Amino acid sequence: MSAPIPNLARAIRTVLTADADRAAARVGFVRRRRKISGAAFIQTLVFGWIEDPRAPVDALAARCPVPGVTPQAFHKRFTPAATEFVREVLLRAVGQLVAAQPIAVPLLQRFAGVYVEDSTVVALPDTLRDTFPGCGGNTPSAGLAAIKAHVRWELTTGRITGMAFQPGRQPDGRFNATDDPLPAGALRLADLGYFDFGVLTRLSAAGVFWISRLPPNAVAAVGDERPSEVWRLLRQWSGDLLDLRVTAGNETRIGCRLLAFRCPPGVAARRREQSAERQRKKGRVVSERVRVLCEWTVFATNLPADRFTPEQVWVLYRLRWQVELLLKLWRSHGGVGQSHGRLGHRVLCEVYAKLLAVVVRHWLLLTGGGPLARMNPVRAAREARRFALAGADALPCARRLRRVLRSLRDTLALLRPRHRRRKRPSALELLFEPQTPS
Q: Which residue windows are transmembrane per the record (predicted)?
């Protein structure tokens, strides 16, 4: 089911008008009455980059709702204050309660929301290396500065519930300490970069469910046995499925469920080849631990065995891939990470503005339903781009904006869902037709 049109129209108008003007005054982007107000600046960036994510600033100036604005005047507005201003509006947008009505899926209805987390890294000009140090690159001058954007997304409603920023060099796992608490009964999915036994312990204590891949060097103890590395346990296991209650970790220990699925021979062989190639480039040989782990897909979870089968845990974790697809869509069809600028504050301002644009575009797509509606995301994004100018023109009038949103909703309803993959069904397909993983 789609997002309620009145709520969506209200959120768009609030963020891009009143919130924008208040934020502009608060950070000093607008100190006196100017031709280009905070709202006009934000609306130009958002709707302009929704329509054409690769448009240069010169082209955006022609779309400004204020007549007579020259490209030079618009360029001058990209100041350090503008960067802080756009960032604040972006965070206020993420705080809006814009969500689609959840589709009834029995497996997901057992949770108080399914939250997936991931991050994307955007390179910045070297002048920002002290504020946002990067991870480096192939040359001494490459990758000196980068910003990492963390995103939390609730899958059943499609609502983006959190976004935060840190230097590109900082590991994902360190972001966990600042996470907003999840509701009890929710399910949290994140990739291996976010793995932290302390975080998982706190989630379990708060009544939050989680599923995570395990690091290659993870240790676990079965019953009263001495802890040993998980790969040694798998090396001795003769079956194709392992499902045990263990105590995992060294310094921080947590009781959890250890699940391991033996991979098909072709998958295991491909993993071994990829590992051998990586080690060859480093002048090393593949260790026995890596060879064993190439044959298994290993999870840790606090989902109880009497309520969730191993196959259901597998399907649930595969949903984590949806946030990677979302971020890929933001980069490839939202222009995040692409800039014509060279000045540090100019590029950073564009990063925040394009993230705001993809958030608003994401709201528009919720008129066609949440992630479980299984729309083709690329085609849906193209339809949202077509409605960008109509939305900008209709913004001053709530009634006209609701009319535009209803028109977009009707257009998205005509999009055919993705074709079903017969040999390897997607995670969304398996939600409705659960089956044993292959």
A: none
Taking CA atoms, 387 is separated from 131, 259, 338, 354, 369, in Å, by 37, 46, 22, 17, 17
pLDDT digits (tens, 9 = 90+) for 390-433: 999 999 999 999 999 999 999 988 886 665 666 677 777 777 76
Report which of 399, 357, 336, 349 is spatially closest to residue 47, judged by C-alpha positions: 357
Of the candidates 313, 289, 384, the one whose C-alpha atom is nearest the C-alpha of residue 12 is 384
Pair of tokens at residue 7: 């709520």
Within 8 A by CB and 6+ apart from 50, the residues are: 357, 360, 361, 364, 384, 385, 388, 391
Tell me the three state secondary structure of residue 153: strand
- Is residue 142 predicted with pLDDT exceeding 80? no
Average pLDDT over every residue of 175-189:
81
What is the rounded CA–CA span in Å between residue 86 and residue 205? 37
Q: Write out the two tokens for 313.
A: 């845990």
Among candidate residues 56, 32, 29, 27, the one with its CA nearest the CA of residue 44:
56
Please, is 168 exposed, middle or buried when counting C-beta atoms within 10 Å of its C-beta (0-12, 13-18, 19+)? Answer: buried
What is the distance between the alpha carbons of residues 213 and 30, in angstroms, rounded to a whole number? 48
Residue range 229-256: mean pLDDT, rounded: 91
Distance between CA atoms of residues 374 and 223, nearest Å: 43
> Judging by DSSP bridges, how do beta strands 187-190 and 114-123 pair with one another?
parallel
